[in-house]
Design a protein that fits this description.
The chain has about 160 residues and is of the alpha/beta class. The chain has one domain: 3-Layer(aba) Sandwich (Rossmann fold). About 55% of the residues lie in helices and about 15% in strands. It has five helices and five strands. It has helices at about 20-30, 40-50, 65-75, 90-100, 115-155, and strands at about 10-15, 35, 55-60, 80-85, 105-110. It has a five-stranded parallel β-sheet with strand order 2-1-3-4-5, sandwiched between helices. α1 (about 20-30) links the parallel β1 (about 10-15) and β2. α3 runs parallel beside α4 (about 90-100). It starts with 9 loop residues before the first strand and ends with a helix.
Length: about 160
């Protein structure tokens, strides 16, 4: 396909627990370009600066639930792939997160390192595929424009 330079996995982990953020950093800090935030406001600040491919958010944030936060993220940053960590699976909440938050993966706590690595790799691959499709579409549009111009020139001569 029309692959861009491979993306380093840039992951933002949002959890109000300093212990969870430290554990996540210890487990994945060498595998990803990893950033962390203790709350939704801090996460928005990091997302505004750009460069985040995958967002991993705890469901139990103090100021708003993770699924609700991901709904806001989906509107403002649709290119970011979102995941939700949950300590207690709630089917209704999972449906809400999938339908409204754009969540692509639910991670049960305690999380499994291999599962999270695999999920992040899949999310980054999906992000890369979207970039490839966008670039390919732009090239097709430009080729079509050039062909239409050449056809008009031929018809006028």
């Amino acid at each position: 396909m029309f692959t861009h330079q491979p993306l380093p996995a840039s992951v933002l982990h949002v959890d109000d627990s300093a212990k969870e953020r430290a554990a996540f950093m210890a487990a994945f800090g060498s595998a990803f370009d990893l950033r962390s935030a203790p709350d939704a406001n801090g996460a928005i600040g990091i997302l505004d600066r750009g460069g985040i491919h995958v967002l991993v958010v705890a469901q139990d944030l103090p100021e708003m639930k993770g699924a609700a936060f991901l709904g806001l993220v989906r509107q403002k940053f649709p290119q970011v792939r979102c995941m939700l960590t949950m300590s207690r699976p709630d089917p209704q909440l999972i449906v809400q997160a999938l339908n409204h938050g754009g969540v692509r993966h639910i991670i049960n706590q305690p999380w499994d390192v291999a599962e999270v690595r695999k999920a992040v790799a899949a999310a980054v691959a999906d992000h890369q595929a979207e970039l490839d499709r966008t670039a390919f579409t732009a090239r097709l549009i430009e080729s079509n424009r050039q062909l239409e111009f050449a056809l008009r020139q031929h018809l006028l001569s």
